[in-house]
Each structure stands twice: as C-alpha cells, then as structure tokens.
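Researcher: Going back to the complex we discussed earlier. I've cleaned up the inputs and rechecked each line, so this should be the final set. Can you rerun the prediction on the complete assembly and write out the structure?
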Amino acid sequence: KAGVTQTPRYLIKTRGQQVTLSCSPISGHRSVSWYQQTPGQGLQFLFEYFSETQRNKGNFPGRFSGRQFSNSRSEMNVSTLELGDSALYLCASSLTAGPYGQYFGPGTRLTVT
Amino acid sequence: GQQLNQSPQSMFIQEGEDVSMNCTSSSIFNTWLWYKQDPGEGPVLLIALYKAGELTSNGRLTAQFGITRKDSFLNISASIPSDVGIYFCAGQSRSGGGADGLTFGKGTHLIIQP
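Model: Rerun complete. Updated structure for the full complex:
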C-alpha cells in the first residue's frame, strides 16, 4: 500500500510570494491534516480536512489556507510568504476524523529568502 | 493551548541498553501516539494508545497510556543502532464531537554510542 505522498519535496520562494503544496493520502484515508515543523516551535498543527470540509484549525494566521478534493487529495496555500514560514510542512492522513493514528508523508521543505 | 512536556530532551546510550522516555501534560488526552522521525523524513507511527491504562508493545517497543490520561511513556529494550532518531509523543483530545489536531512534544533525540 502506497504511503502519503507530498509534492514538491523541496521549494525555495521569495518573501511576499505565495506557495501551494500538495498531499495525496493513503488510499482509503479520508482525513488529511497539515503540520508545520520548525526547530524552534517543533511540530504544530495547521488544519485538518475530512470529506472536503475543514474540521479543525490550529493557531496560524489567515495566510495559511487549505482545501481537500473529492478524491481526498489536499492542498495547502501560504500567501504573502514571510521568512519565518521557512519550515518542513508535513501532511498526515488517517482513516477517519476520529482519534486514530495519523500516517505522515515525507514533508515539503520550504525555504523563504 | 495544550502543551506536552517530553523528557529527556536527548539520550546518549550504549548499544544494548534499555531506553525510557515520557511525556506529561496539564490537559487530558483521549489518544496518545508515539512517533519516530529520521532526518529528512516525516514522523513514522510506532504505537497508538486509545484507553487509559493501556499497555501496548510493538517488538522491542512498549508504551503505556497513563491512568490519569495526562501522561505516557515509551520504553525501548535492547537498543540497536537503527533506533537512533528523534522520538515524539503526541496527544489528541476530542472536542465538539470530533478529534482535535495532534499536540506534539518537543522530541527526545536518541543517540547510540558504539
């Protein structure tokens, strides 16, 4: 069974630009969550989507947004990039939105210059 | 917001030794999860705990969900070189009829000395 895939794996953007990251969950998984990982703050929850609806949102500014498609694939978008947005962005999928273990993808390493 | 205190921050051990790490929280969690992350990769789920008091093993790994639902520990027996990495605990609570996003500890960096 294929795991969670994320594209692209690496990305370099300039301050002020916007970026879109993509995540394909494990087949059959309908819940997709996004996390930001930085050395200083660790892993922080961004948001969760289930059946194309955002169920939960972490404490991030409105520049961070996402969506989920009918095939459960998800995208997250960051507008007006700031230097502090440089991070590893991780996507995780799970069968449902309930308290089940989430399976992570390899992440997208975003560098903002 | 919810916070998890994970300790120790790092561990330097000899191959073959047993390892123990734990997480504590001021909040109650309904699910405790333990992950391992290797450099350049996403966290890999090791053990999931769903009930207070639950003790679960996965090979040489054993984890327990604390009876108060505010703590969990992970033990690794007879460590081997491939156990090197960063171990994260994560808690998940339920609110509004659904599950919240995971709250992660800061990680325990396990280093095995030859």
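Model: Worth noting: Chain A has a mean pLDDT of 93.
Researcher: Good, that matches what I expected from the previous run.
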